[in-house]
Amino acid sequence: MRPPSARAALALFPFLALAVASCGTLAGLGSGDENLPTGGLAPWRKLARGEVQAPPYVLFDTEGDVENPAPLRLADGRVALYYDDGVAIRRSVSDHGLRFTRGDVVLEADAAWEDGAVVKPSAIDFDGAVFLYYEAGGAVGLARSTDGVAFRKEPEPVFRPARAPSVARYGGAFVMAFAADGSIVLARSDDGLRWTPLDEPAVETPDAGAWAAGGTDDPALLAVQSPAGRPLLRLFFAGRDEGDAGAIGASASDDGASFSLFAENPVLSDDAESAPAAFAIPGGFLLYFSQTRGDRRAIAAAVHPPDLRLRGP
């Protein structure tokens, strides 16, 4: 999807101040389609004081861990953030996408195959409904809702085996990226229910580089358009080095099947980041991710381009 235009910025993000002009296309790519498909994947700047109250965090909970963010723009311009607490999936809503509070549970494990936990959500809006994909019992489940709060689950997994699903609409179809055997793999579907895996992985651990030699995980898809209107599919993912230190890398595709790794990966690597989720905002993009705060996992955010300054609540 295109980032909203500057004209819509105040309506969609009332606390957002643009420091660069928004052209409604990929930030950092200029006026043409040079350096595709990986142009504009970096650099990122973690949110600072004045943008969020406890930089770079947008959500933390003194009662327990919160991680695996999945943002979704609502029809009124607010941002819903689905995330998990290790057992169930919760939903919090923000006017601006920069500060969330502890959300209510919207999905719990109640089927035998879910093995007691539903985690790692991925939310998309399709045909007037929210499709909420999630990991449970080594498989991918799907729950649907017309209001984003009350969900009805499919009785059985829609895809298995798989971990950490991320789903986007691209080229008139559903595309899923998921983690399997230390790599990132893709599947396609016409209806979001019946999936066909693609032959080639999107990211293989040996190709990702030393920073991800311990494996790749937590894929996050984002469909965007180039300045000339060319559809692209971005893929962010977590990686671990041989010492198990975490970081976030990126790749991109212009056909939804063959991905090119960003040459300067990782794009975030200073504090064991994981579980990325990219989100378009006026003038650029936010990248939500999981990071440790004290002795708890919390959700933080970074912005691209780095000279885009946001005004927090």
Structure notes:
With 313 residues, this protein is mainly β. The protein has one domain (6-304): Tachylectin-2, Chain A (5 Propeller). 3% of the residues lie in helices and 43% in strands. The strands form 5 sheets. Strands 1, 2, 19, 20 and 21 form a 5-stranded antiparallel beta sheet that branches. Strand 7 and strand 8 form a beta hairpin. Mean pLDDT is 89; it is low at 1-25 and 27-31.
Mean pLDDT equals 89
Q: Can you tell me the CATH topology?
A: Tachylectin-2, Chain A
User: Strand count, sense and closure of the main sheet?
Assistant: 5 strands, antiparallel
**Share of helix, binned:** under 10%
Count of alpha and pi helical runs? 2
- N-to-C span: 26 Å
CATH superfamily: Glycosyl hydrolase domain, family 43
Taken in chain order, the helices and strands follow as HEEEEEEEEEEEEEEHEEEEEEE
Which features would summarize this protein structure in a list?
21 strands; Tachylectin-2, Chain A; about 325 residues; 2 helices; 5-stranded antiparallel β-sheet; 4-stranded antiparallel β-sheet; mainly beta; globular; about 45% strand; single chain
